[in-house]
Amino acid sequence: MTRPRLLAAALATLTTLGSAPAASASPAPGSPVARSTAPAAVPAATPAAVRRVYAPGTSISQLDSTQVLVADRVAGTKGTWARYSWNGSRWIKVNAPATAVFGRGGVVPAAARRQGTSTTPAGAFTLVSAFGQGNPGTRMAYRTVTSCSWWIQDPHAWDYNRWRQSCAVPRTTAANSERLATYVASGLYRQAVVIGYNYWNVRRYGYGSGSGIFLHHARSYTGGCVGIDNMAELTATVRWLDPRRHPVIVVKA
């Protein structure tokens, strides 16, 4: 299993942040994240644990990720936006001013989220990859959208909640999926990041729980994604992300 999948599995055990206090317990002993906190050959006299410092308003520590994004719904479909970078001793807020934008149906716990409800899932999620009209300089895996790029949202398709590069998508699948070039042209997906909700293990929440949960540009509401109303800040975020730092987005209700 790759490190992103291990981190995704560890993050999935966190209590949904929209219904829990901001600071929660550390990962359980023996979890992949907990095991990674100490080298194998630590002398017996060395302290057994490194102090965890949590990114503001989250239960994500520097031992889990050193790049944390926080989208916190305040009212309706709008909320605050922040991204934090661990500098070796403390968390530094590095974002430009921006507003987070959520699904037209509100924000719900990830386990309760269903496809077609226009709700944004709350929780802590890894970031999978980025896409859009062209790579702005990110270290994330990046795909440039063409007229044959689709995100499959048909629950009956073998590649549900995945990118499909094809100019011959069946009509029934296309009717339940997103032709990405359409949203690039409108500006929504000029730059976007795939959020790991229901991605690494679709069976966790079920095929009907939703696909295509992205971080992208939006001004008023989304269909269930997380939006940023400042395109310059979105582009800067995509450019800033580095998979070696195991970036995580925290969505709060």
Structure write-up:
With 253 residues, this protein is of the alpha+beta class. Helices cover 14% and strands 27% of the residues. It contains five helices and 14 strands. Strands 1-2-4-13-12-11-6-14 form an eight-stranded mixed barrel. A three-stranded antiparallel sheet has the order 9-8-10. The radius of gyration is 18 Å and the shape is globular.
Brief sketch in words of this structure:
With 253 residues, this protein is α+β, with helices and mostly antiparallel strands.
Secondary structure: elements and pairs:
Layout: H1 3-12, H2 32-35, E1 67-75, E2 78-86, E3 91-93, E4 99-101, E5 107-109, E6 120-132, E7 142-144, E8 149-151, E9 163-165, H3 171-175, E10 178-179, H4 180-186, E11 191-195, E12 214-217, E13 226-228, H5 231-240, E14 248-252
Parallel strand pairs: 1-14, 5-6, 6-7, 12-13
Antiparallel strand pairs: 1-2, 2-3, 2-4, 4-13, 6-11, 6-14, 8-9, 8-10, 11-12
What keywords describe this structure?
253 residues; alpha+beta; 14 strands; globular
Distance between the termini: 31 Å
Radius of gyration: 18 Å
* Widest sheet: strand ordering: 1-2-4-13-12-11-6-14
Secondary structure category: alpha+beta
| Content of β-strand | 25-35%
Q: What letter string, H or E per element, gives the SSE order?
A: HHEEEEEEEEEHEHEEEHE
Provide mean pLDDT, rounded. 85
